[in-house]
């Protein structure tokens, strides 16, 4: 494993700040290329009662992005929709390592749980 020094802990925030985020478990049902983008793929994610398209900049991070089809991961689902590369993202996948310049890994549950289950 590569030597790593963790970044300093960010300033303290009130608990309500964290509670305002809606973080849910979803199953990635499809990974599609976003034409014209060097970084983005479109994840189709099932949250049990509905599905969403979530854009993620993982095209250059994984040799085969489709390898995550069928995996459960954590997603922030109450962000404002964001337009990127001509498409709209309806959330954000949580990954570990990107902010530190590491090859990211998905934030995944230790065991399968129902899609749409909330974190926290």
Give a short overview.
The protein is mainly beta and 120 residues long. The protein has a single domain, classed as Beta Barrel (OB fold (Dihydrolipoamide Acetyltransferase, E2P)). 4% of the residues lie in helices and 33% in strands.
Radius of gyration: 15 Å
Strand/helix succession: HEEEEEEEEE
The CATH topology corresponds to OB fold (Dihydrolipoamide Acetyltransferase, E2P)
Assigned CATH class: Mainly Beta
| Average pLDDT | 95
Mind explaining what this structure looks like?
By secondary structure, the protein is mostly beta strands. The chain has a single domain (23-106), classed as Beta Barrel (OB fold (Dihydrolipoamide Acetyltransferase, E2P)). Helix content is 4%, strand content 33%. It has one helix and nine strands; from the N terminus they run αβββββββββ. It has one helix at residues 15-19; strands spanning 23-33, 41-46, 51-56, 72-76, 82-84, 87-89, 92-93, 95-96, 105-106. A five-stranded antiparallel sheet has the order 3-2-1-4-7, with no helix packed on it. A two-stranded antiparallel sheet has the order 5-6. Strand 5 and strand 6 form a beta hairpin. It is globular, with a radius of gyration of 15 Å. It starts with 14 loop residues before the first helix and ends in a 14-residue tail after the last strand. The mean pLDDT is 95.
């Amino acid at each position: 494993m590569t030597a790593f020094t963790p970044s300093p802990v960010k300033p303290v925030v009130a608990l309500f700040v964290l509670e305002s985020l809606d973080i849910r478990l979803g199953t990635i049902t499809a990974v599609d290329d976003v034409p014209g983008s060097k970084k983005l793929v479109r994840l189709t994610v099932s949250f049990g009662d509905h599905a969403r398209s979530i854009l993620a900049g993982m095209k250059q991070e994984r040799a085969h992005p489709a390898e995550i089809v069928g995996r459960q991961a954590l997603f922030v689902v109450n962000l404002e929709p964001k337009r990127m590369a001509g498409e709209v993202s309806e959330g954000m996948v949580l990954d570990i390592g990107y902010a530190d310049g590491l090859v990211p890994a998905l934030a995944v549950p230790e065991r399968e749980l129902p899609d749409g289950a909330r974190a926290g």
